[in-house]
């Protein structure tokens, strides 16, 4: 078992997830979006169900939707239609312990499932646009974590692919850990929601409750 804290200087480059890792959104916003999506789909979402999908607590969101008898394509079309980028940005806050990213030396990349039309206003609102040398918002074309393809694309953009540089990906979900390992990187899992709420323990090379635990 790897130690539970990592030294920042151990890595030549860093990749990070966004939602749930560096930033989060007020619950009232999440609840309102799921209420409107539910109206469109003719199905109510409980608080627990909204939390599971929003935070990806069970891994693949599409598989979870299918298990509930919901067509993922119809859900995501309604979901993205109901998200207002400016409101989303206003309701998003930066985790205090994320400040370490601004001090990282070497290349830093962002790999997120947050869509570009939402990502840009969020980054601007919380003032972290300049933290990243490159960023990628996953799509059907790029693939979704834990698929390593989006991670590998960011590594290529940073000029650190296949050249012996040691890198790490930090995120709040099992998909982030899987993407890191599939791309040959170390994985840091930051547990934002707690094991009881998640219903399982996510293993990574390093597990922390806060980035303040990093050395």
Automatic annotation (TrEMBL):
Any GO BP: DNA repair
This protein's UniProt keywords: Hydrolase
GO molecular function: phosphoglycolate phosphatase activity
Source species, domain of life: Archaea
Pfam families: Hydrolase
Name by which UniProt lists this protein: HAD family hydrolase
Organism of provenance: Salinadaptatus halalkaliphilus
């Amino acid at each position: 078992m790897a130690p539970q804290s990592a030294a920042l200087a151990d890595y030549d480059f860093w990749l990070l997830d966004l939602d749930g890792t560096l930033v989060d959104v007020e619950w009232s916003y999440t609840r309102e979006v799921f209420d409107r999506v539910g109206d469109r789909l003719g199905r109510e979402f409980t608080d627990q169900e909204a939390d599971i999908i929003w935070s990806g607590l069970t891994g693949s969101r599409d598989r979870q939707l299918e298990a509930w008898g919901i067509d993922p394509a119809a859900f995501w079309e309604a979901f993205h239609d109901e998200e207002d980028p400016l409101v989303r940005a206003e309701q998003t806050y930066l985790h205090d312990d994320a400040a370490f990213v601004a001090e990282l030396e070497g290349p830093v990349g962002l790999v997120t499932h947050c869509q570009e039309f939402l990502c840009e206003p969020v980054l601007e609102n919380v003032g972290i646009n300049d933290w990243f040398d490159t960023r990628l918002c996953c799509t059907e074309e790029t693939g979704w974590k834990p698929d390593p393809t989006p991670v590998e694309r960011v590594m290529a953009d940073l000029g650190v692919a296949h050249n012996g540089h040691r890198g790490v990906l930090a995120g709040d979900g099992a998909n982030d850990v899987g993407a890191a390992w599939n791309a040959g990187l170390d994985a840091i899992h930051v547990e934002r929601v707690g094991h009881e709420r998640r219903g399982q323990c996510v293993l990574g090379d390093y597990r922390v409750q806060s980035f303040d635990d990093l050395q």
